[in-house]
Amino acid sequence: MKVIDMHCDTLSALLEKKEKGISGELRSNGLHVDLLRMRESRYIVQNFAMFVVLEGAGDPWERVQELYRFYREELEKNRDILAPVLKFSDIGENEARGKLSSLLTVEEGGVCKGETEKLRELYRMGVRMITLTWNFDNEIGHPNFDTGRRQQMRQVMKEWKEAAPGTPEGEEKRRAAQLFVESYHHTPNLTGGLTEKGREMVEEMERLGMIPDVSHLSDAGFYDVLQVTKKPFVASHSNARAVCPSVRNMTDDMIRKLAGRGGVMGLNFCADFLEEKPLGEKNPGTIEAVVRHARHIADVGGMEVLGLGSDFDGIDTHRELPGAEAMERLWEALHRAGFSQDALDGIFWGNVLRVYRETLG
Asked: Labelling 187: which of 79, 148, 178, 196 has CA 20 to 30 A away?
């Protein structure tokens, strides 16, 4: 077994801990991902995202620079077991030297502020994949979650939590909150896609050898990326909407179109994107739900479109897949569900490796 994981938020989680005076290093920590557990679980590549929240985070370009400095420090401290990926051949060379490969990504294209030169600077820094949006509009495009309704949802949830449980008023507030949350999570953005600047930047990404990532992007934006690009692209951490109706997941048509382009989508271990629960009910996550998504995606798009995108350290801990140490557990569950050795090799590393071969140069 080998592992390539297209998305984790470990860098951002570690830097936030450091800024609060809490110790934690990439080599070994109490988060979902660290290098020692990756090595034990036979990882060959981990995509490390520099995740930036646009709302209330100050200057997003300065924040991504802070994350980059932290990343370089961790690379230097761990150069005995970790090496960066700047071109495709680095992956095989690093593996031959017994080292894990780190592929640097950005989660939030808004850090570029719509400036193509900043995109090129990210490439010079070693960034090889960008999640075009997170949950906010930016100069590149629009997400699927309606950012204009975010504050309204917060207010509805606040009123529900403050209402006396078991009372007619409390039940009314609970029903209202349930309906609003379902509407918020189930209503895709079908009109707000890439901006004109976004189209230009996606074209420049492909020219440079930087992979566009459509996880979080609106439905309209997905089809814009499909139109603008020629090479494979990815949905680094997205599941199947037919199995769980969150708009963070991909429709069957998107899965087929992504597969037709030669792209991949990474199974996301976030419990709420695997299986929805009634409002207020705990959702700890199950491997069975991951298997259901994998089977559906393979049935719709073929085995070659499946990869891994755990979202570790950006999600609540999944009860049965709590961290990098649990990858073999997922392999065994998929094998029991009927996935062959060849199919599992593709899901766990081969399909993503093929995309890297075709895009990174």
From this structure: 196
Q: According to the model, what pLDDT value does residue 213 have?
A: 99
Measured between alpha carbons, how far is 307 from 40 in angstroms, rounded to an integer? 20
Token pair belonging to 219 = 């439905």
Q: What is the pTM of this model?
A: 0.96
Tokens of 58: 């100050």
Query: For 66-112, how does the pLDDT look when each residue is reduced to its tens digit (9 = 90+)?
Result: 999 999 999 999 999 999 999 999 999 999 999 999 999 999 999 99
Query: What does the buried/exposed string (b/e) look like for 137-165 if buried means 16 or more CB atoms within 10 Å of the residue's CB?
Result: bbbbbbbbbbbeeeeebeebeeebeebee
Q: Give the CA radius of gyration of the chain.
A: 20
Extract the tokens encoding 136. Answer: 């906010």
Whole-angstrom CA distances from 119 to 38, 85, 211 are 30, 18, 12
- Dihedrals φ, ψ of 137, to 5°? -60, 145
Residue among 228, 264, 241 at smallest CA distance from 6: 264
